[in-house]
Write a structure and sequence with these properties.
Elements (H helix, E strand, L loop, with lengths): L1 H6 L12 H11 L4 H19 L9 H14 L3 H20 L26 H10 L2 H13 L3 H5 L6 E2 L4 E4 L2 E3 L2 E3 L9 E4 L2 H11 L23 H14 L2 E3 L5 E3 L7 H12 L4 H8 L4 H4 L11 H8 L10
Antiparallel strand pairs: 1-2, 2-5, 3-4, 6-7
Helix pairs in contact: 3-5, 7-9, 7-11, 11-12
Length: about 325
């Protein structure tokens, strides 16, 4: 058996005696992820994972133990999204233990997780979006016009470089992205690196904005005196620019009544772009490419906005010989 261990053909059953905490430390120190991701993961592990599993031996953890841990989190009132992230981190840790021959099989399999309620995308009507654009300080109108008409993520907007705008072909290229750790030369996923078409009026506004910028300059930066030219911070820009504008914006509804614009965050510009495209008959595959969605399922959230989304259902009712009626 010792010879088989040495050759790597047999797993040492004593390897599983390592404690969960010690294995976590080994796994954590070997991870290669972005610094801001590490900070978020550390919080979830500290609050939801280690308090439960501290003191356990890796080999002692069964699938039912993992399911019991999930049940304990639910009873504690932990949100479904937080539970899913904590579970995914633990599952990753267990898969690494299997790969390293610490465990023969991962206990994180066939685990029931609480369902995460999928919120419908929040998007603005044309009148609402125009009201926000009109209310913004002039320095930010071009950036938000670009957001509404291209669906770029915040980091893609604030990380856009002048030389990524192809004025001749009316295109821009999503390559760099602004993160909490600074500009990165790669976007969120492989599909996020993409070419995005620019409508003529958007290109015209962009050309007015960038004509004085150096070729390698970031297109949109801070403007505050003494701090101009720095990368934008999402939280600061929301607090100082977006929310004051959104809270003071009004539009006229279909009855001609003046209403406050919905209190939606800047990310809703992205949802707005997708919603308008789908409403006007653009295929969801085209919208997927425009937005850089990794999964088509993400784009499916907008399916109900298609012009013919309910055509078959309504047609079936119309074809009934004697539809149901009630007395007037």
């Amino acid at each position: 058996m010792e010879t088989q261990f040495a050759r790597g053909t047999l797993r040492d059953p004593r390897a599983g005696e390592i404690s969960f905490s010690d294995w976590h430390d080994r796994w954590w120190n070997a991870r290669i992820v972005e610094p801001h991701t590490l900070r978020g993961d550390a919080s979830f592990i500290r609050n939801h994972v280690l308090p439960y599993w501290d003191g356990w031996e890796m080999r002692a953890i069964t699938r039912m133990d993992v399911q019991s841990w999930i049940r304990a989190l639910v009873e504690k009132g932990t949100g479904a999204a937080a539970i899913k992230r904590a579970y995914n981190l633990t599952s990753s840790m267990m898969r690494a233990a299997v790969d390293d021959d610490v465990l023969a099989v991962s206990p994180c399999r066939n685990i029931d997780l609480p369902a995460i309620a999928v919120k419908p995308p929040q998007w603005f009507t044309l009148g609402q979006a125009q009201s926000i654009l009109d209310g913004l300080p002039s320095a930010w109108r071009t950036m938000c016009l670009l957001g509404f008409c291209t669906g770029l993520r915040w980091g893609e907007l604030s990380g856009l470089h002048r030389h990524r705008i192809d004025q001749r072909r009316s295109r821009l290229f999503v390559v760099e992205v602004d993160t909490k750790s600074g500009i990165k030369e790669y976007p969120k996923s492989s599909k996020s690196r993409r070419e995005v078409p620019l409508p003529p009026h958007v290109l015209e506004a962009l050309e007015r904005h960038i004509h004085r910028l150096d070729r390698d300059a970031v297109a949109f930066t801070t403007l505050t005196k003494g701090r101009a030219g720095r990368l934008l911070a999402d939280s600061n820009w929301r607090r100082q620019t977006w929310w004051p504008t959104a809270e003071a914006a009004y539009y006229f509804d279909t009855d001609g009544e003046q209403q406050l614009v919905p209190h939606y965050p800047p990310h809703s510009m992205r949802h707005t772009c997708a919603s308008w495209q789908v409403e006007r008959g653009v295929s969801r595959y085209e919208v997927q490419h425009l937005l850089g969605h990794e999964s088509f399922q993400t784009t499916q959230r907008y399916a109900h906005l298609q012009p013919d989304a309910h055509k078959a259902v309504l047609g079936a009712w119309e074809r009934l010989d004697a539809p149901l009626t009630i007395a007037a």
